[in-house]
Specification:
The protein is an alpha+beta fold. It is built from five helices and five strands.
């Protein structure tokens, strides 16, 4: 978690305001993940990370919980949700033991948060990406307490506007909005 926060602190607003694909790669790097857009889902695929409304939490975890499965307590997440093998493949080892993953945001609007990071992996988020209203062209990164870390206004082929607005909708009413 500390190593991810150090990497986030090393980024500038200018770096996070360039072409979206490059910004996304910087977010993955900061979070300790490889960019694996061609891997099979469940086998390290990270092409979805920060590219939809829901996979916008960067979560670090102990190795002992990387293979935890959802037994049904997280609303809207498939029972099972076996992510461990993909986490091992995609995680950058230089950030330390355990792993990282871009987990689902849904359930973060309540207290305590009932999202994948907090429930399935019993972990805090290192950062959450939240697209900001009214135009959803700028995002903020916030930490587990909801405190601001940095922001960016990327250019180029952004995620669809409905995903960006939906991302904010998942946080509305909670400490991350």
């Amino acid at each position: 978690l500390r190593n991810v926060h150090a990497r986030v602190r090393s980024l500038s607003v200018e770096e996070l305001s360039g072409d979206w694909q490059e910004v996304r790669r910087k977010l993955l790097w900061a979070g300790g993940l490889r960019d694996l857009p061609d891997a099979r889902p469940g086998a390290g695929y990270t092409g979805h990370s920060f590219n939809d409304d829901n996979h916008c939490d960067l979560t670090t975890m102990l190795g002992s919980v990387a293979h935890n499965q959802n037994s049904g307590e997280i609303r809207g997440i498939a029972v099972g949700n076996l992510l461990g093998p993909g986490i091992e493949t995609a995680s950058l080892p230089e950030l330390g033991p355990g792993g990282s993953w871009s987990t689902c945001t849904n359930g973060c609007h309540v207290e305590p948060p009932q999202d994948v990071a907090h429930v399935q992996f019993r972990s805090r988020i290192a950062f959450k990406l939240v697209w900001c209203p009214p135009n959803f062209e700028t995002f903020v990164l916030v930490d587990d307490a909801g405190d601001y870390l940095i922001h960016g206004t990327p250019t180029g082929a952004l995620p669809q506007r409905r995903f960006r607005a939906g991302n904010y909708g998942l946080t509305r009413g909670g400490k991350y909005a």
